[in-house]
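Hi R.,

Here's the chain you asked about this morning:
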Amino acid sequence: MLIGSDDLGDLSGECEYCGTDLRYTYAIIHPSWGAMVVGTDCCDNLTGTMLASEHHEKYLKKMERRKRFVSSKRWKRIRSGGEWLIQEGLSVFILPSANKFLIRMGSVEGAARYDSAIDAKLKAFDFIESGEATAFFIKRGERERRRSDQQSKRGKSADDFAKLIEQAGLSVPQRLPTAIRRK
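And the predicted structure, written out as tokens:
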């Protein structure tokens, strides 16, 4: 059974099954040998699946997409010394800020600061690629719609109150009481 995987960054690992030097490791539990750290081929062989090979292929493709994103010619320089591009319909800005860099997506500025523009671009890529950016902006849009709906309901309540006052033959105050405006 596959438990997890890791990219060691270089050939610093060793397969506990066959002894091959490894960069990409997979932690597995095998009924005959217990828990062990193995390479892609041994993981597939010992688990009787293609999970490691499929994971490895997806991982390498993601790393290639990250590399292309960071070095893309679509990044445009701006006067502030930052850069911007549009990714999946979202304006992504990498902006200098007090010897660091920040990410702004759309009109939302992130709180985190990064040591380099490359670090900020990698974080932006991961945020978009993971689907977190989409989820964030959907939730933000829903929150803004609710707030807008509440504000328009408040306006209708005040208008309705003013109409009732006029229908009763009373004069409408220039400014409605605070309690009414907040409902």
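Residues 73-130 form one domain.

Let me know if you need anything else.
M.
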